[in-house]
Each structure stands twice: as C-alpha cells, then as structure tokens.
Amino acid sequence: MTRRNLAASAPPDAGGGSEESLIARLKAGNGDAAREFFDLYAARIGRFIANSLGGDPRDAEDLLQETFIALAEALPYFRGDSSLFTFACAIAHRKVQSFIRRNARRARLALTAPLDPEGEAPGASPQERRAVAEAMAQLQPDHREALMLKYVEEMSVNDIARVMQLSEHAVESRLARARRALRAILEASR
Description:
Blueprint: H1 18-27, H2 31-53, H3 57-74, H4 84-112, H5 126-138, H6 141-152, H7 157-164, H8 168-188
Helix pairs in contact: 1-2, 2-3, 2-4, 3-4, 4-6, 6-8, 7-8
C-alpha cells in the first residue's frame, strides 16, 4: 500500500458540498472516489491507529487496511451525523480496541496453559524450569499476566499498559512487585 504524506492536504469542506459529493460517489461504488478518500485520509487515519497502538507499524498497516474494508461495508449505513473522517476514525478506534482485546485474550490463554518446562529458559536445568513454572502458577493472576506479557510475549511496558489498561508507571510497579513475589516463591522453595 503506497502512502503519500498528505498532512497538508485539506479534507473536503463538509459545508461546501464536496464531502457530500464524495460520499454519494463512494456509496455508488465509484473507484475514483475510493482512491480520493484514501489519498485524503489514509495518512491521518494511519497516524491515529499507529498512535493508538504504539507498537509494530505492521500492525498499524494491517488495521488501516481492515478499517478501510470495514468502512466500505459500513458506508451504506453512514447517516452524515458526523464528517466522513470522524466516521472512519470511529471504525479505526473499534478495530484498534478489538486488536488490543484479542492480544490480551491471547495473553490470558497463555497464562492458563501450563508452561512447557522443556521449552523455557535455555541453559536452565529441567528442575529450574519446573520450579519457575510452579512459582509462576502461585503468583497472583495480575502479577503472572504482567510477567508473561513482558518476558514470554516480549511486550514493551507501553504495550503492556495498553493491554492491561493501566498507566506505564502502574505497569512498571506491577512488574517490580511481580518479580519480587516470584523471587520470594523461588527462594522459599529452595
């Protein structure tokens, strides 16, 4: 997907009729109107998605494509209560929220799955890997989730904050408490 920097491009004036014309042409299935809309808004919607995710730019690109597909499907239901850009951003917001929830759900599923004592911590003995897996199972769920997101899923603190719907500072504090709790469980089991 080729993107041009169109930050300086002015969107159609909603009061001047050009947005209404664009909407009518889009609803009629006009390919030129679809390209025009994409050229006018893709960069802005892409930035909105990327800033909302704060993560991998490939995820933002995928969600941008999903947003435009969903926009095409939802266009017949657009009533004009807002600008077309606002409508597209609302769709993008829902796509981002679904993406974050889906990743959080995957992380929760990973937490309920038993840790593979053979696949974790290369260089550690099977007994050490088993001890870590057993200690992780004893942690509070929010501590276990934070550690799994950080060290198994290799997520940044920023991404963990988005998934757990916490501030970055709260995530850092939770990770510190979780590491202390894990260390205490491991030391007590020796």
